[in-house]
Design brief:
Number of strands: 9
Number of helices: 8
Distance between the termini: 52 Å
CATH superfamily of the largest domain: NAD(P)-binding Rossmann-like Domain
CATH class of the largest domain: Alpha Beta
CATH architecture of the largest domain: 3-Layer(aba) Sandwich
Oligomer: single chain
Strand order of the largest sheet: 5-6-4-3-7-8-9
Radius of gyration: 21 Å
Shape: globular
Number of domains: 2
Order of helices and strands: HEHHEHEHEEEHEHEEH
């Protein structure tokens, strides 16, 4: 992946993909950066930079070939490659993620769910049976699983992550809220829901809302 691709740009690429998929379904052969920018409420220059950094360029006065650009972004983001993952932590968030079908669009399939609560072990979440956490490293080695979604409590997150990395896990999607100390060879993506709430709260504060919410309905 090019070093010039910022995290912000990377987060916008799935937005382009979703829009392009709709345009392909509508049989629109080409789309301009201006059209993409308008539909997504982005700056046109930003759109061109985002797509250029992936190595895809359009044609003057024609724009981008819609189907080809969609296929390019799918390849760039690794959507077409199948990725199997384990989910550690069968609480409410973990079970909700396990039921979420949107991961399939990006080639991610959750193949196992684990928890250290004896009361949960043996229960089913969809088609998966909750298994004890100590089995996760063993099964990861056997199945060649390299990705983990971590939804355990923050105070045990580091210990569980260390256990999994020793078993060959190379990518952790961390929902625990605890910053993990991992070797450089391990990819860690921290998903902090509290941070997202802080952003939402800040944006909400910019609105001039009436003191009485009921007044909005008047």
């Amino acid at each position: 992946m090019p070093n010039t691709l910022s995290r912000a740009s990377l987060r916008r690429l799935p937005l382009y993909m979703k829009l392009l998929a709709r345009l392909v379904a509508a049989n629109q052969p080409n789309v301009t950066s201006a059209e993409l920018a308008q539909a997504l409420e982005l700056d046109e220059t930003l759109v061109r930079k985002d797509l250029a950094v992936t190595g895809f360029t359009g044609k003057p006065r024609v724009g981008f070939a819609t189907r080809e650009l969609l296929a390019h972004l799918e390849e760039f983001l690794g959507v077409r490659s199948r990725k199997e993952a384990f989910l550690i932590g069968a609480g409410r968030l973990g079970q909700a993620l396990c039921h979420y079908h949107g991961f399939e669009k990006y080639g991610l399939s959750i193949r196992g769910i684990f928890d250290n609560d004896p009361k949960k072990v043996g229960e089913r979440v969809g088609e998966l049976e909750i298994q004890p956490v100590w089995m996760a490293p063993v099964l990861a080695r056997q199945a060649g699983v390299r990705i983990v979604l971590l939804t355990v409590p923050s105070h045990v997150a580091q210990a569980v992550a260390d256990l999994l990395v020793d078993a060959g896990i190379i990518a952790i999607w961390n929902f625990s809220g605890h910053p993990l100390r991992m070797p450089p060879s391990v990819i860690v993506h921290n998903e902090d829901l509290a941070d997202s709430l802080a952003v939402l709260s800040h944006r909400l504060a910019q609105y001039d809302l009436p003191d009485d919410p009921a007044a909005q309905a008047v």
